[in-house]
Each structure stands twice: as C-alpha cells, then as structure tokens.
Amino acid sequence: MITLKEIQKNESIQALVHAGNRYLEAMGYTDHGPRHAGYVSKTASTLLSRLGYSEHEIELAAIAGWVHDVGNSVNRHDHGPNGAVLLYPILREAGMHINDVVEIITAVGNHEEQSGFISSPVSAALAIADKSDAHKSRVRGGKPDPDDPHDRVNFAIQENRVIVEPERKVIRQEIKMDDTSSVLEFLSIYMARIIMCEQAAAFLGCHFELMINDRLVNKRA
Ligand SMILES: [Fe+2]
Ligand SMILES: [Fe+2]
Fold first, then answer.
1. How far is CA 175 from the centre of its chain?
2. What is the number of the ligand closest to the CA of 129?
3. Quick count: other Cβ atoms within 10 Å of Cβ 73?
4. I need a labelling partner for 16 at 20 to 30 A (CA). Which of 1, 26, 27, 212 fits?
C-alpha cells in the first residue's frame, strides 16, 4: 500500500499543496499549507484509529487529510471536487490501487460543507478533522487582521483538541478561547461546519460534542 510518507514526497502533490496555500494567502485566508494538511492528516487518522478501524483505513485517512485541499490551486469554489479530479491521475501514477484512489477522491470531493455528503468512514474522519482546525497558529505570520472575523476567531483560540471516547461513542472538540473574540463570533463562522461534524460523527456511530471554555454548546448525547 502507498503510504502517507510516499505521498508527501510526491512532487505533484507538493506543488499542488503549495499552490493552493499560496492562492488562499492571496485571498487573505488563514493557513491551508503543510500545517493545516498535517493537522487534518493526523486528526483524521487518529479518529479512525481510536474507533478501531483497520490500519488500511487509518492510512487512507492520513493520506486524504494531507491532500484534501489541493483543489484550491484551481479555485476556492468547488475545491473539493476539483481536488478529487486532480488527484485521480496523480495517485494512480504513484501506484495506488484503484479502490484506494476511489476512497480518497470521494472523501476529498465531499469534504466541504456546502456540497459534501458523507458516505464512508474515511470521508467522515476527513470532514471532522478539517472542520475542527481552528487555532491561533492558523493566522498567517501571527498577525491577525482586526477586520477579518476568521482571523479574530482563530487568533482567540489558545487550545483546540479532538477527543474520542469509544466506549461512550462520543467525538468531542474542546476549544479554549480568550475574549479577543467571542463564542457568538465563533458560532457565526463555524455553524455549518459544526453541523457537518455532527453528520460525520453520526456516520461513525458517534455523537459530536463541542465544548468551548469548558461548556457544552451543542446537544449532549
Ligand atoms: Fe477545504
Ligand atoms: Fe481544509
């Protein structure tokens, strides 16, 4: 099986990750480069590992996390489906089995909350990992634009982690944010993403809990 390490060394993937991040930097978006890809890869694979999925699916989730945003090199709009189409020949050429390629492109093509539909564990793990990435380290250069709500919210987040409790069937995101932004501002930006996390967790047979500053802000299981 092709591993995450091999995919990270693939020069086509490297060029696309870089191009997508550069494009979004020009648009004034938060980090979408190796930091974000690394977080999503690690979080998606850890989720499936904690829930007892196979090593094969765990590695596919790690790969999907690393490559999920390459479509931003084409355009922000429809970057999920565009990324999937870009990835197909690259992953095949890299020697990945067709069944694994299909797993990856379905997950990547459905990771955005605007049009994504969760149809596999890898897709569910990718969605939760991607939507949960909010942290001060995502603000480029450590300098938030005070007029940009995404910068304000991310910069206020001091801690962020995703915890899995397999016995309770709970996936919980725990955020600690300071008062340079607010819970309301966080929710105004992240609401659609939280709903996608709830849907993805349900696909995995779990409930999604969101805790901000030690308070549960969505429905308890
Ligand atoms: Fe994305
Ligand atoms: Fe992303």
1. 16
2. 2
3. 20
4. 1
